[in-house]
Structures are given as structure tokens and as C-alpha cells.
Design a protein that fits this description.
27% of the residues lie in helices and 26% in strands. It is of the alpha/beta class and 495 residues long.
Length: 495
């Protein structure tokens, strides 16, 4: 069954999307998506073709996403704020036949020379946008075409993530795995209701926004308020004016909302607040409750699981990510692959119909992530108590989480090594009062060269999204390593 059927079965008159002053009912949204689906097929795009989507959280993203799924295409959501070099690498990895560009992504796509996006036959841009090779696809006169049937094993989305190590790679999410995760989330006590109004202040190119917010909202027939750029005052204004009942975002978003001066309690009507994408500190959870009277519900998951693996009820103590979703199996194992005892630390292994199909064109990475028995090795370390609640304690991988976004040291280090003044480098995450963590780089200068910190940061900004770039650079004589050559990142963090 095609994942795009989540749009079906809801009243034509029910509110589906709100973006600025524009409001879409489910009936109108279905009609627009049907015509957009027909327009994509009319270009000659075939089931299985990849379609890049470089857009902020706007109706253009939602319509293009659903239309492409319905046409049997594989959607590749990409960060519209990426620098041109990063976006070029990602396009080269997935070789899409078509790319849909939103207003936020137009500037960066315009910087990519046509010969560096040679696989892209159709560059679909907003009306009035001047990009070489770009076309404006007018769907108003297109014929609405029926959904193309897809099997559970057919690819739906390629979502860039790192896996357990290295530079980001596209994770293969199928129609079946994404739909299974939506059904698992819907079987919890915190499921969305048809009369909910959901504020989505986070990007849709991230798995949290795509399948933990957008997907459940449309599946349940609720309404979604889209925000292209998060601003705490604007978010609180929308919560009040649109009578939002559900808000979801990373811990940094919640701490920002709790610290924002605002008259009265703007969240008096909010029944559920979700936190995900990074560990929620007890201080942030308490600050949100003290300010808004709202206990946050925390969950845990990753791109490779379609989004969520666990959820904690608002009655559970701080520090826990709760219990596995219905249909999800979890194990905590030691380095020998044996189950650990209650209270002992182990790596989280997950199994279920929501687990991804592997990494695009990377069999070795897939085998490292999913074993022969189908267990996903997450790289995250946790303990489980006598109460059955799971508490994350560390990451086996060296992931850095900046404002809910994953940063992989290997990717940043690879870019820094390109600078002629750098002989060696290591990157770690350090605590940050507002972002959760920030990126700290330690560099060893090439002999005869001096490292200019501002120039090095500027070099990174040319190749990487801003949240991945070092906030600070320290020049050192050497990088501490183990006898096998691995960086001793704990030594750097404690230096």
C-alpha cells in the first residue's frame, strides 16, 4: 500500500494545513496533490525514480512529498540551508532525475553549476525563480492521476544520516517501514486525535519532522501549522492564535520557549508536548512544567528506525525515554552480543517492521548496521531498570547533537583536512547552554603553516551546513590516539 494513502479517509472539510494566512482543507489538499502527481507523471518520471526535495517546511514541501510518493517516486529530502558544496555531494550520491526547489532552497541550488547536477533532468522551481535549467510546473490544469500501488518493500524515502560512523549516507526507508512506524506510534496513549492542531516548528527534511510530526498528523486527520523558520515569540503567537493542542520539537526548542517572556500561559490549551532528537535534561523538563504546566513526553529513535523506537508518558520520571513502541523489540547487549542484566549498560539493538532496508549503494555499511538476524545496532548505550523503563546513558558512536541535528565528527574532520594549513584534526562535541552541544575542533598545523581560526571556520562554512561547523578551534601539537590510531575523544573533551 502506498504511504501517500495517509491523506485519505478524512472529511473534505477538515482542516489539514495552515501556513501564514493560507489554509488547506483535506479535500483541497487531496485535489492539489492529485494534480501534482499527474504533473510529475506527465514529465515522464517513472516509479523508482528519485526526486530531490530542497524546501523549507511549507505547503510546497508537503504537496511535493505526497505527490511524489503517490507517483511511486523515491523522495530525497535535503536541507535547503546547506551550502552548495554539501548539496552537490548529496545530489551526486543519489543521482535524482528531478529536484523540487522551494523558495528557501533556491539560492543554494542556483549556486550549483548545471554540469554538477547532470543527473537532474527536471529542476522544478517556484514561479518567478530564475535558475539555469529550472522549470515552473503549473499543476492547475494537470489531470489528477490515481495513486500507483507500492509494496511494503518498495523504497519511499532516502534520508541522509551517518549510521554508526563516517560521513552521512542515504538510509533507505520503505513504504512499509515508514507506515509501520506511524501505526506503532498510533497505538500509544499519546496518539494524535482528529481534532488536534499540531504546531510543527521543525524542518521536514529531518526524520523527526517528516515521520514523527507530519506523518502522524496526516494519518490521524489532524491539522498542522507549518513554520519555515523557528522563532520563539512567533511560535507562541501561533500556539495562541491557532489554538494548538500539540507541539513537538527538540529540547533546545523547548528551553527557548520556556525562557521567552510572554503574557500569561500561551500553552494553556496544549495537551501534549513532545521532545525528541536529543536527550531531554531534567532541568529543561522542569522549566517547561514550571512555565507552562506541561510535562513533556520524551521519545527515542533514529532515522534508521523510521523515527521512533520508544515513548515515555508524561507521568514517567525525568531521564527515561520510556518503553518500546508496540511491535518494536529492543535488546541491550554487551560487546560480545550477550544480553546485559537489569541495571547494566548495554548497546541498544532494535528489531521490527519499522527498521530501514539499509544504506543506499553501501552494502558494507548495511551489514555493519543490521546483523544476519535483522537486529539494528544503534550505537546508543542504555540501561533498563526493574520498572522496565529505558534510560540512555551514552553514545557508542561519536555523534554530536546540535539543536536536535546530528553532526558526525568524521564528516567535519574530512572537510577540515582539505585545508592546506591542517596536518591533523579531531572534532568533538562540547556542552552548549542553548544548543545542547556545539562543535569543537582540535587541529595540528602543517609544518611551516599557521592556522588562522577565522579562515578555517570560513572554509568549513563553504562546505558544510552552519550547524556542522566548528564554533571554536584549538591549535594543538598532536591529537591523542589509541594504539590502533583511533582518536581518544574523551581526552579531548576533558582537556
Amino acid at each position: 500500500m502506498n504511504l501517500a494513502t495517509i491523506l485519505d479517509g478524512h472529511s473534505d472539510e477538515a482542516l489539514a494545513l495552515v501556513h501564514h494566512q493560507r489554509r488547506y482543507s483535506y479535500g483541497e489538499l487531496r485535489a492539489i496533490v492529485g494534480r501534482a502527481r499527474g504533473a510529475l507523471v506527465g514529465l515522464g518520471l517513472q516509479p523508482g525514480d528519485r526526486l530531490g526535495l530542497v524546501s523549507g517546511a511549507t505547503p510546497r514541501f508537503v504537496i511535493s512529498y505526497l505527490a511524489a510518493l503517490g507517483a511511486g517516486l523515491v523522495v530525497v529530502p535535503l536541507n535547503p540551508r546547506s551550502p552548495a558544496a554539501e548539496l552537490t555531494r548529496e545530489l551526486a550520491d543519489v543521482t535524482p532525475r528531478a529536484v523540487v526547489v522551494g523558495p528557501m532552497g533556491a539560492g543554494v541550488v542556483a549556486q550549483i553549476p548545471p554540469d554538477q547536477r547532470s543527473s537532474v533532468e527536471f529542476l522544478i522551481v517556484p514561479e518567478g525563480t530564475d535558475i539555469a535549467g529550472g522549470i515552473c510546473l503549473d499543476t492547475s490544469e494537470s489531470e489528477a492521476l490515481p495513486l500507483i500501488d507500492r509494496s511494503d518493500d518498495d523504497l519511499a524515502v532516502l534520508m541522509f544520516t551517518s549510521g554508526t560512523a563516517g560521513a552521512p549516507k542515504p538510509a533507505m526507508l520503505t513504504h512499509g517501514s515508514l507506515r509501520a512506524n506511524l501505526e506503532q506510534m498510533a497505538r500509544t496513549s499519546r496518539t494524535l486525535l482528529a481534532d488536534d492542531i499540531v504546531l510543527c516548528p521543525i524542518p521536514l527534511f529531518h526524520i523527526h519532522g517528516l515521520n514523527a510530526v507530519l506523518g502522524p498528523t496526516l494519518r490521524s486527520g489532524a491539522a498542522m501549522i507549518l513554520m519555515e523558520r523557528f522563532d520563539p515569540v512567533a511560535a507562541l503567537d501561533l500556539i495562541v492564535s491557532e489554538h494548538a493542542t500539540v507541539v513537538s520539537g527538540p529540547p533546545t526548542l523547548w528551553s527557548s520557549l520556556a525562557a521567552t517572556p510572554y503574557e500569561g500561559n500561551p500553552m494553556a490549551g496544549v495537551r501534549v508536548g513532545y521532545s525528541g532528537g536529543a536527550a531531554l535534561s531534567p532541568d529543561t523538563r522542569k522549566a517547561v512544567h514550571d512555565r507552562f504546566g506541561l510535562w513533556l513526553t520524551e521519545g527515542y529513535g533514529l532515522t534508521e528506525s523510521g523515527s521512533a523506537l520508544t515513548v515515555a508518558g508524561d507521568d514517567m520520571p525525568s531521564g527515561t525515554v520510556g518503553r518500546p513502541l508496540p511491535g518494536v523489540e529492543l535488546r541491550l547487549v554487551d560487546t560480545d552480543g550477550d544480553d546485559v542484566y537489569v541495571g547494566d549498560e548495554g548497546e541498544v539493538w532494535a528489531k521490527g517492521p519499522n527498521i530501514f532496508a539499509g544504506y543506499w549503494n553501501d552494502d558494507d555499511a548495511t551489514r555493519r548496521a543490521i546483523d544476519a538476524d535483522g537486529w539494528l545496532h544503534t550505537g546508543d548505550l542504555a540501561v533498563v531498570g526493574d520498572d522496565g523503563l529505558i534510560r540512555l546513558v551514552d553514545r557508542a558512536k561519536d555523534l554530536i547533537v546540535v539543536s536536535g541535528f546530528n553532526v558526525y565528527p568524521g564528516e567535519v574532520e574530512e572537510i577540515i583536512r582539505l585545508h592546506p594549513a591542517v596536518a591533523d584534526v579531531a572534532v568533538v562535541g562540547v556542552p552548549h547552554p542553548h544548543q545542547g552541544e556545539s562543535v569543537q575542533a582540535y587541529v595540528v598545523p602543517e609544518q611551516g603553516h599557521a592556522v588562522e581560526v577565522d579562515a578555517l571556520i570560513s572554509h568549513c562554512q563553504t562546505h558544510l551546513a552552519n550547524y556542522k561547523c566548528p564554533a571554536a578551534v584549538a591549535v594543538v601539537d598532536d591529537i591523542p590516539r589509541t594504539v590502533t590510531g583511533k582518536v581518544r575523544r574523551r581526552d579531548l573533551r576533558s582537556a
